[in-house]
Amino acid sequence: MKRTLTKLIHEGDYVAEVAVAVIDSDEGWAPYISLDDASMLDEIRESLRRGDTRPALAHGRVYSITELASKVAEDPPKYKTD
Fold it and tell me: What is the average per-residue pLDDT within 1-16?
């Protein structure tokens, strides 16, 4: 039996959201994905690593990750206690 699963691939500043078919079986190493889907995920991962989003966009959504805050200040803020 097959079902669809959404995989998130994170590389660098990008995350790709891609649907793959998961195969459930009573035999072997189930659940597993097809060789074609595994190759597609590898291709998307490599392209995101290079900064090329086109292959991932052909198969799903791509998000750019933006840092909202830098590291926590080493010295906590000082408050007046008068």
Answer: 93
